[in-house]
Amino acid sequence: MMKGPDLCAPLAGPVAAEAESLLRQLAAEGHLAVEAVERRIRDVADRLAATGTYRQSAEELLLGARIAWRNNPQCIGKFYWKGLEVRDCRDAGGAGGEEGELFEALVEHLRSAWNGGRIRMLLSAFPPSEPGRPGPRVWNGQLIRYAGYRQHDGSVLGDPETVRFTEAVLRLGWRGRGTEYDVLPVVLQWPGREPRWFDLPADAVPEVRISHPDYPWFEGLGLRWHAFPTISDQVLELGGLRYPLAPFSAWYTCAEIGARNLSDANRYDKLPAVARGMGLDTSRDRSLWRDRAVLELTAAVLHSYDQAGVSIIDHHFATKQFVRHEEREQRSGRGCPADWSAIAPAISGSTTPVWQRRYEPTRVLPNFAPQTDSWPFGEAA
Ligand code: ARG
After folding, report:
1. What number is the average pLDDT over the span 197-215?
2. Residue limits of the Nitric oxide synthase (NOS) domain (predicted)?
């Protein structure tokens, strides 16, 4: 449904300015010839005047998404920003925007990012929002996540982080198996339409069982995690356009799983079980049982992913690469926006080179941004 140009006029200002600034940036970084940029800026202004929006070229999308990653202050892996691959799913679902076809494209994203264990850094760009027609979204924070079921006694079976999401999909009619690691369905929604949920096929959800190189009993704890993360709730803000569905996959660092997901007291809370297996004294904080257990759990994660042939990096390598990235950016005359609390690893922070450095989480465009606004299940009964 196209709106008349007059209705869209107010949008043209900031959108045009952001489009122009992205195009000039691509030229300044040597990706576009100067004359071509001037032509493209005029062309975009014409499209905006006529339709209130414009379509980015595949190259603008690819290079812009890479710069958005580089600009994001939360990510320690930015050293690799030039290696980001982008799938163009802007026409997925056809003119009707069919959810089933969007879902298939999400499944393809996961298969492609998995790549047999050699994880790809991959972003898929789905239809951007247009004036009067916001783009599709998924409710999921990540495409692959485990359910969290609140039990009668108040405890949680599974991942406490997803309790509200799990309750919402149960209300939509989804049923899980009731295990600690039930993979949640993907909930797709076009604003103004009913949400639809889809279960992921098993081959799109590779997982790793966690064992320890020295403790044979460790495997008996039954711990596992999905092979790689795929952030799916951030909007890609690029050249004046907003892509509300732009899932981003990359490999893990071992501390995210060992020192957060499986060990945080408000997540899987496995440190007491690990410490008991190690025979540690858990009755006193001063035995440092948590510290010893979190280290062995993280070592187990690294070992298990390596054994399974799944890409994963350790926090020492990751932080060294981050500092190299920072220095490289400086040589290119750019800053390195970063949020220290997101960059410093969850364990052994002081043994890594980022510990003594200071960062500014400056916000520049293009970028990724959280979008919490349309969680339709927030307040729902
Ligand atoms: N920390 C999040 C998780 O545990 C993933 C965030 C992105 N991490 C990454 N390595 N790309 O699942």
Report:
1. 98
2. 15-375
Q: Which atom of ligand 1 is nearest to the CA of 249?
A: 11
Q: Answer yes or no: is 166 within a domain.
A: no
CATH number where 101 lies: 3.90.340.10
> DSSP alpha helices (H): ranges in the chain?
5-28, 34-51, 58-71, 99-114, 163-171, 254-256, 271-278, 289-308, 315-331, 340-343
Instruction: Take atom 6 of ligand 1 and give the residue whose Cα is closest.
Output: 229
Calpha distance 250→243 (Å, rounded): 19
Same domain, 8 and 88: no
Q: In terms of residue numbers, what domain contains 34? A: 1-54
Residues with CB under 6 A from ligand 1: 77, 229, 231, 250, 252-253, 256, 261
Q: Would you state the pLDDT for residue 95?
A: 82
Token digits for 178? Answer: 């009731």
In a domain, 163, yes or no: no
pTM: 0.95
The string of pLDDT tens digits covering residues 126-146 is 999 999 999 999 999 999 999
> Are residues 43 and 189 located together in one domain of the fold?
no
